Amino acid sequence: MMKFVIIAVAAFIMWKLFSGDQKKKQDQAGKVHDKKVKTGEMVKDPICGAYVPKNGDIRVKNGEKVECFCSYECRDKYIKRLEAESNE
Description:
The protein has 2 helices and 4 strands. By secondary structure, it is of the alpha+beta class.
């Protein structure tokens, strides 16, 4: 019985150590993301609102403004929206 208690306590301690480490990594990743957004390295996708790298591969130039997208699907929706606005 005592072995079971010791194993259970050891397992709990290990779980707490690993779960605490994951939370710390998530917090650090969030801080890095926020810093990139503030410095302008990441911009908001105008369709879905996801943040993407400013120098990403999926971009559309609209006049002087360059929009960046998270996916080709969002890019296509944006292009359709521009076409609809220009037809009005």
